[in-house]
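quick one before i forget lol
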Amino acid sequence: MVSQSIENIVRNQAASFTSQVKYVAKNAKKEEEIHTEFERQLALIANDAGITLRGKHEFTIGTGRVDSVYGCVIIEYKNPNDPASRLSADVEDRGNQEVIHQIKKRFIDFEKDENRKLDSMLGIGCDGNYFVFVKYLNNKWNIKDPIEVNRYSVERFIWALINMGKKGKAYTPENLAEDFGSESDLAKTELEPFMKFCAKN
């Protein structure tokens, strides 16, 4: 069970996490700047919460190079000021479609090279302004509309890393309920959108 102190730390720091990331995104000239700021903010939260988030960064799998992997969470960062790769609110826009295609390929590479099941992974694309979440559920790709980076989406992002990245568990409603308690305020509020994301349409 996650302690109340960790819940409070995540909730309280999500706003500053968001403002720092969005500040960097305004003037970023390359995706590495977004990546670096995310890692800095995650390190601050992990330190204050007394937890360890073990990530692997910038490594090759298959024929591609992954920005970050935390357990079962695959993250690809993008340059918010590059018209060819920046994300937006419209899932059909070029940048969104390219990162979705990229993440799908990463899933397949991990399945082939590390025997991971497609439905055990969560893919996240981010350019500092938007998140794109990619899952494989019920034998098909599950892509939701992009979500603006704000304190609430950042909280959801952090909890995904804590659940899947720290513990390496499959990203399922059952595991979320087991870890955080189906009757807890956290499960009912902060994690409810993720549970819906994982649930059958």
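fyi Helices lie at 4-27, 31-49, 94-114, 151-166, 173-180, 185-188, 192-198.
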